[in-house]
Amino acid sequence: MSAEFGLPGRGPAVASAAGSGGMVASSHPAVSLAGARVLAGGGNAADAALAMAALSWLALPGQCGVGGDAFVLLRRPDGSVEAFGGSGFGPDGGEPAFYRDRGLRALPLEGALAVAAPGAVAALAALHADSASLGLPELWAPAIAAAEDGLPCTAKTRADIVERRDALARDPGTAEVFLPGGRVPRTGEPVFQRALGATLRRLADDPGDLYSGGLAERCVDALVDAGAPFSGYDWMASGRSAPEPALTCTYRGATVHLTPPPTPGWMVAQQAGLCDGALADLPWLSAEAVHRMASAARIAFADRFAGCGADSDHWRTLLAPAALADARARLDAGDLPAPAASPVPAASPVPVGGDTTSMVAVDAEGRAVNLIHSLAFTFGARITVPGTGIVLNNRLGRGAYLIDGHPNEVRPRRRPLHTLNAWLVTGTGGRLLHVGNTPGGDGQVQWNTQLISHLLDHGHDPATAVAAPRFTVHPGSDADVLGVPPGLRVESRLGAARIEALRASGHDVTVQGAWDAGGSAQIISVTGDALLGASDPRQDGVALGV
After folding, report:
1. Taking the model in full, what pTM does it have?
2. One-character DSSP codes across 208-252
3. Which of 189, 225, 276, 282 is in the most buried spot, having the most CB atoms within 10 Å?
4. 103 and 252: one domain?
């Protein structure tokens, strides 16, 4: 079966380390190396993740940054699991009327009006205070050096710059870094981010400076000057992050731990509840299995749009046993909801892609950290805070609705719905089994469900799981694609016979290239006394054991 799907096999994407000091995996070799060096030097998994996160701000600048959001799952050596949330509020003056008075029918996807206050630094600072053994100046020194000395431009970053060139050129700060001399950097050419390096030095000494210090003042002033109605208090309030209980569900007898709202981790739990017991006896990635998972995803997106917001508890109702039983009955009967509609005409369909990056780390004590962070769309709002190197996210524009009365309607002190989520799986007695994640917008909750099924329903190793043919229900419930006609995107490796069977089941199937679904999954699994890890071949990452 693996040969049929053209999987790359065990190869360089897999690392194992019996009795090891730990393992890391990420979407960029330098990021993984930074984490491995921390583990090899005696640091723990939290230290490794913090070092990796900072370096990824330099290595994958389109996908993440100081101006973005982050979410973390932490498994402690005693087996307990907690989450750290890092996402911010929109502006205090951002009432719906503010946008409607400017002739808008939806929030912009670029510029100051698309920006929510960033939460990534708050989440990382909270993780550091909770579990790190090394100081941030030491952990972030490699990232600061990369900013000052330059880091080679990857093919991925070059392609991101080419695709967004016009938008990046309109902002002096982004143009200076990513279009030096007015041209796109060549692959392998150093990209210098010296202003960001100075900002990282400042934040390593005091992360709170981004929320209530001089950096906060510069960020808020820049946004207000550009027309966004931030008060400063909204920005300060976004700097609070503390450990909280992870959301949990069971699947195949194991416990799946998920990031709680405002992330859509509950959607993975709902899909798990709709698929548990239904997939293990089906052939792996058969048309019937794909149909089941795709239908479960469609139900989750419809339920999300119908009643969920970042400060709404409606998701709890959806995960109640009676609600899951009713949804399973509807799924079994083929009674599937229509995709989310909107009174606002949809923008052109946006391809599901990896506008985010993620990493995992496990240490010798059994501590595991799962970290995912993002600017929302690639290069976020495509604007930089002058003199700081901070590229700002467009999470408000991507995530909040301008729909009267909706729980996700843009409102002051209401976080927009998020796409980021992460998971880890434990067994009997809280024993760590798997930790993983993937970027990819609204693909995330679907692909994470697929990854968990590959591991638990079929017993696949991490390399097989991350490289398996991927499929994606589209649209999800991002603000910019509401109302797009429903479809199912599948990688061609799924095979012609399965694709035709899916069409016969009623799916409007779009066939993508063999490896073109998007995402960049990372998994570390515990097998006996060994750690086994893999990084998605769809990007440039690697898993490293020490």
Report:
1. 0.95
2. THHHHSHHHHHHHHHHHHTT----SHHHHHTT----EEPEEEEET
3. 276
4. no
Pairing relation of β-strands 190-191 and 254-258?
unpaired
Q: What is the mean pLDDT of the chain?
A: 93
Q: Under DSSP, is residue 417 helix (H, G, I), strand (E, B) or coil?
A: coil
The tens digit of pLDDT for each residue in 439-453 reads 999 999 999 999 999
Q: For residue 339, what pLDDT band results from cuts at 50, 70 and 90? A: low
Q: Are residues 168 and 104 in the same domain?
A: yes
CATH number for the domain spanning 450: value is 3.60.20
Q: Higher confidence at residue 7 or residue 166?
A: 166
Establish if 385 belongs to a structural domain: no
**410 assigned to some structural domain:** no
Q: Are β-strands 423-426 and 432-437 bridged in parallel, bridged antiparallel, or unpaired? A: antiparallel
Distance CA 433, CA 427 (A): 6
Higher pLDDT, 122 or 478: 122
pLDDT in tens, 524-542: 999 988 999 999 999 999 9
pLDDT of residue 546: 94
* Closest-CA residue to 522 (of 465, 460, 453): 465
Residue 10 is predicted with a pLDDT of 46
The number of distinct structural domains making up the chain is 2
pLDDT of 83 above 80: yes
The answer to whether residue 92 sits within a structural domain is: no
Cα 243-249-255 angle, rounded to 5 deg: 85
173 with 201, same domain: the answer is yes
Residue 336: pLDDT above 80? no
In a domain, 351, yes or no: no
**In this structure, what token pair is assigned to residue 311?**
């400060």
Name, in order, each residue with C-beta under 8 angstroms of 130's C-beta and a sequence gap of 6 or more. 46, 74, 84, 243
Residues 82 and 46: beta-carbon distance below 8 Å: no
Element (H, E) at 361: strand 356-363
Q: For residues 312 and 427, state if they share a domain.
A: yes
Domain interval for residue 205: 30-85+97-241+356-375+390-399
296, 325, 407, 475 from 338: Cα distances, Å: 13, 20, 19, 11
Q: Are residues 66 and 210 in the same domain?
A: yes
